[in-house]
Amino acid sequence: MQPVEIKKDIWWVGAVDYDNRNFHGYSLSPEGTTYNAYLIKDEKNVLFDSVSRSFTGTMLCRLAQTLSLEKVDYIICNHLELDHAGALAEVVARCKPEKIFCSQMGIKSMQGYFDCKDWPVQAVNTGESLSIGSRTIQFFETRMIHWPDSMVSYIPEDKLLISSDAFGQNISSTVRYADEVGTEYLRNAVEEYYYNIVLPFSSQVVNALKALSGLDIEMLAPDHGLIYRGKQSVDFILDAYARLAEQKPCRRALIIYDSMWHSTEKMAYAVANGLEEAGVPSRIMSIQRNHHSQVMTELSRCGAVLAGSPTHNNGIMPAMAAVLTYMKGLRPKNRVGGAFGSYGWSGEGPKIVHEWLESMGMEMPMPFVKTQWSPGHESLGQCHELGKAVGQALIIKCDG
Ligand code: FEO
């Protein structure tokens, strides 16, 4: 693929990683991802970010098609995580830039990863700007989206926001623009990315959206996935982030379960029937068959979580512990919860799941349901009641 001129004298020089299936080492990326890097050619030639180390050659080749490498004057590191800085040492060695700009926190990351004591690094803060000739680059720190060092760069003359991790998606494609794919496909990719990467930092997203609200953005170029061009496309992603950050309860429930001998599985289906009676549709996901990041993506559309685990070694099933650990770390808010599970001997599992959901701040309208051996008519009825109670509480939460 050739470098792509996204605006006059502004080029995409990144790399498409079709084979990445484990984004950042923990999130399923079924279609790979894209590491976007951008070059602005002006009186000073400026490179924004780089790519994962294994794509260094690909990126340098694209960069060299637009400009001799030694003509790169400035490098702006909006974020130093290695999917954007993995190529940095070689880029610095080849380009020998006059200056490298990053946030104060970015310097810490840079010093942690690289032997950079001889690099011409300069820290920038929110509100500072840099003239590069006919253009100006304005810096906004966006701490925690996705790391403490993160910042975005706005070029007012082009109405262009280069947004680092914010507003990205894990899409690998030969097309570069969000309006070249279907809206539902794009929305799903945005939700998947947000709920697995950005969700814990939703309050920072709200602040960032406020800080950026005064900017006239005609093009929004994230460091992952497709670029938003034109008002409709830019509004789409800004509105999506506002909605996702708000975590307003949705009238839909997520049921996750693990099962050894189908007993907890039967309970999960009875819970779904109770939700249905309350008027709440649900999605049942076996965590043996669904990756933890698929569970989180589904949670983006659900206002309730019902989790079921058999008792295993006086605890819960290891896969359920992994999902709940992952979910808790991503700090979902405004959810209703419920727990259930079967047991053979000691029976601690459902209580542990209940406490775990409660510790995430979930509203728990009913005690956990547990059943010994195989669920009979009575315990399936209790599961039905659990689903119904959670469904009713969710409806009140959504209407309230
Ligand atoms: Fe895409 Fe936080 O790195």
Describe the protein's topology.
Elements: E1 4-7, E2 10-12, E3 15-17, E4 22-23, E5 27-28, E6 33-35, E7 38-40, E8 46-48, H1 56-66, E9 74-76, H2 82-85, H3 88-95, E10 99-102, H4 104-113, E11 121-123, E12 129-131, E13 136-141, E14 151-155, E15 160-162, H5 183-198, H6 202-212, E16 219-221, E17 228-229, H7 231-246, E18 253-257, H8 263-278, E19 282-286, H9 292-299, E20 304-308, E21 311-312, E22 315-316, H10 318-329, E23 336-343, H11 349-359, E24 369-372, H12 377-399
Parallel strand pairs: 8-9, 9-10, 10-11, 15-16, 18-19, 18-20, 20-23, 23-24
Antiparallel strand pairs: 1-2, 2-7, 3-6, 4-5, 7-8, 12-13, 13-14, 14-15, 16-17, 21-22
Helix pairs in contact: 5-7, 5-9, 6-7, 8-12, 9-10
Residues 79, 81, 83-84, 146-147, 165, 223-224 line the site of MU-OXO-diiron (FEO).
Attached small molecules: MU-OXO-diiron
Task: Round the Cα radius of gyration to an integer and report it.
Answer: 24 Å
Question: What is the H level of CATH, i.e. the homologous superfamily of the largest domain?
Answer: Ribonuclease Z/Hydroxyacylglutathione hydrolase-like
Overall shape: it is elongated
Order the strands across the largest sheet as they lie in space. 1-2-7-8-9-10-11
N- to C-terminal distance? 51 Å
Uncertain segments? none
Give the proportion of residues in helices: 25-40%
Number of beta strands: 24
Helix/strand class: alpha/beta
Strand content: 15-25%
User: Do you know the CATH topology of the largest domain?
Assistant: Metallo-beta-lactamase, Chain A
Mean pLDDT level: 97
